[in-house]
Each structure stands twice: as C-alpha cells, then as structure tokens.
DNA sequence: CTTCTTACA
DNA sequence: TGTAAGAA
C-alpha cells in the first residue's frame, strides 16, 4: 500500500530478478532470457553476485504488454511491436500532461488547476475548477511584470 | 534454492 | 519454448 511519497519513489526503483519477474508476469524465465536476446526487453543491470539479471518496473510493464498481445494471438515479434506502440503512446500522454499541468493555485479561496496559457498573445492563463462537482473553466490574465522593458 | 549458459527435443 | 546438465 502506498501511503507517502517515499513509498512512491521506492516503487519506481523496484528491481526484480528473473525468477520474480517470471512469476509476476506469468512468463517463463526461458522466455524472458530469449526476449532479452531478441532485444525486446533488457536487463537494466547485472547483480554482482551471480551475474543475475535485474529488471526494472518499466521492464515489468513491457513484459506484461508483450504477454498480453501474445495471449491475444500475436506472434512474439508482432506482440513486441504492439507493446512498443502502447508505450510510445503512453509516453506521449505523459509528456502531454506534464507539459499541460502547471500546478494548483488558490483563486478566490477555491482550488484551481492551472492548465497553462490559453491565449499566449494576451497572456491569459486557463484554469479549471470545481463548480458543484462539474468542471468549470476560466481564464485569468497573467500578472503584469514590472521590470519588463 | 536461484541464476547462468549451452545444448538438445 | 521446455527441459536438462553442470557450475557458481
């Protein structure tokens, strides 16, 4: 259970050895090694001990995706391409939100989500806020900069 | 017990 | 891909 930020941070740093990953994803260790050989997945590092492969959480996701498409009937190579498409799209979505979300501000005592510039020309910013359970939008001019020019 | 590589079915 | 073998 994730209760605080440090837990979330640790989540992103989770590392799995091949046996764990195999059980988690329902894929044989033989498959994982083969997929790695095919460059479909990659061990992020090798544990000093027995030169054991160490996989990241991202790789776990990748394996799940390939497994998913494999179960759907795709051949391994095709399943890999499919998973790449999904990840690519997911990255785009992530970048989109990261670029769009400018934080939350308090406006007139209400929390407003800063959605970035609405009108670059007139220096207006778009906000989204709660209006009786519905999403309402409003624009607000950017504060004048005193030192400008 | 786990992982690794190599080799064979 | 599964499984076996020998090593670490």
Give structural attributes.
149 residues, alpha+beta, Multidrug-efflux Transporter Regulator, Chain: A, Domain 2, four-stranded antiparallel beta sheet, three-stranded antiparallel beta sheet, 5 helices, DNA-binding, transcription regulation, DNA-binding transcription factor activity, MerR family transcriptional regulator
How would you characterize the overall build of this protein?
- This protein is α+β, with helices and mostly antiparallel strands and 149 residues long.
- The protein folds into two domains: 7-94, Multidrug-efflux Transporter Regulator, Chain: A, Domain 2, CATH 1.10.1660; 103-148.
- Helix content is 44%, strand content 28%.
- The protein has helices at residues 5-12, 18-25, 29-37, 57-71, 76-100, and strands spanning 15-17, 45-47, 52-56, 104-107, 110-119, 124-131, 134-141.
- The strands form two sheets. It has a four-stranded antiparallel beta sheet with strand order 4-5-6-7, with no helix packed on it. A three-stranded antiparallel beta sheet has the order 1-3-2.
- Strand 6 (124-131) and strand 7 (134-141) form a beta hairpin.
- The longest helix has 25 residues, at 76-100.
- The chain binds a DNA duplex (9 and 8 nucleotides) through helix 3.
- Residues 15-85 form the HTH merR-type domain.
- This is MerR family transcriptional regulator.
- GO terms for molecular function: DNA binding; DNA-binding transcription factor activity.
